């Protein structure tokens, strides 16, 4: 069994590649439901954000099962192109460390941003709902989420950090000057759109228009900011007097096209229009940038804004990485014992069966015992078994992950006859339970 992570992100792949490998929620759900079709993959979580697409998996062997994981990624997106130059891979401890850094926002475009932790939670929840996780992934993601929370609690890495939506608005202010008395149109009604609206109002924007394929969602968001909801089909036609347009939808194709924008600019009679496309896949056709009077920026243009207050957050990142390293070591210790759980379970069960059998034998000979006295006998027998097993269990624990692990495992099998599954009095049910524990 090995942990492996395969993916690409804003550091390794340009935007046009990232958008081709962005993973819609429904596609992820369907892929996880069919995970068993990919040999070697036993547990899986798919993490997809605007800046990364990553697969976290438990496989039989990382080297031999990597092609199956890569094929899963291709099947999710419908792509078969050669993207090896953009992919990165982490195995075992490196995989754990990478996920912990992701959950702690140490690997984000915006160092210290808070949205990634929620995205990690959502990705894990989706995998659990699909039945694609078990002991290893459950343990890994629980600890990753806890690590992310700890970093945000014990450091100031989120202090003065900026979100993508904030960076987008700051970019507009930098390029256009004072936003007071201006107006804005937002495509989308999700969390990113809501944050964008908040930042626009904070910078003095007087009126906000919101459009969404579902008009009721646009009306809901617009109502929060005393804005105006615009029908999807009429959005660009209503943008004649708008100064800035921010797009943040989950559409798999362009929602702003050159011809419609050309018509809009003709009606504006030379007034410039500023587009910021923070969606992945992109919402605005890149050809729109060639239209006279239009300025278009996408999510990769936000790095200059993100650099503000970066020095302070980098100092906090040092402490965050210390926390991550500590959490990784702790989880590694936990994982070391997973391989010994079956033999320890068998040993405990064997002794528990003997204890119950001997109590059944002695019960008829002690009819005078009260209910309380019998509870005391039960308790005493439990404690005797626990104390007898304490030293063997400690030896097994100490051998986990060392060259002595196999020796002690085999010694326990021989000394306690654990290969005689169920013993002479074992039932078929007990026999099967032992087989499951060994597996």
Task: Compose a concise summary of this entry.
Helix content is 52%, strand content 13%.
Describe the fold and architecture:
It is a single chain. By secondary structure, the protein is of the alpha/beta class. It has 3 domains: 183 residues, Glutamyl-tRNA reductase, N-terminal domain (Beta Polymerase, domain 2, 2-Layer Sandwich); 143 residues, 3-Layer(aba) Sandwich (Rossmann fold), CATH 3.40.50; 101 residues, no CATH class. Helix content is 52%, strand content 13%. The chain has 16 helices and 10 strands. The strands form 2 sheets. It has a 6-stranded parallel beta sheet, with helices on one face. It has a 4-stranded antiparallel beta sheet with strand order 2-3-1-4. Helix 8 links the parallel strand 5 and strand 6. Helix 13 packs antiparallel against helix 14. The longest helix is centred in the last third of the chain and has 29 residues. The radius of gyration is 29 Å and the shape is elongated. It starts with a strand and ends with a helix. The C terminus is likely disordered.
Topology, please?
Elements: E1 2-9, H1 15-20, H2 25-33, E2 41-49, E3 52-59, H3 62-77, E4 88-91, H4 93-103, H5 115-129, H6 135-154, H7 164-176, E5 183-187, H8 191-202, E6 207-212, H9 215-224, E7 228-231, E8 244-247, H10 258-268, E9 273-277, E10 294-298, H11 303-306, H12 310-336, H13 341-362, H14 371-399, H15 405-415, H16 428-438
Parallel strand pairs: 5-6, 5-8, 6-7, 8-9, 9-10
Antiparallel strand pairs: 1-3, 1-4, 2-3
Helix pairs in contact: 2-3, 4-6, 4-12, 5-6, 6-12, 7-8, 13-14, 13-16, 14-15
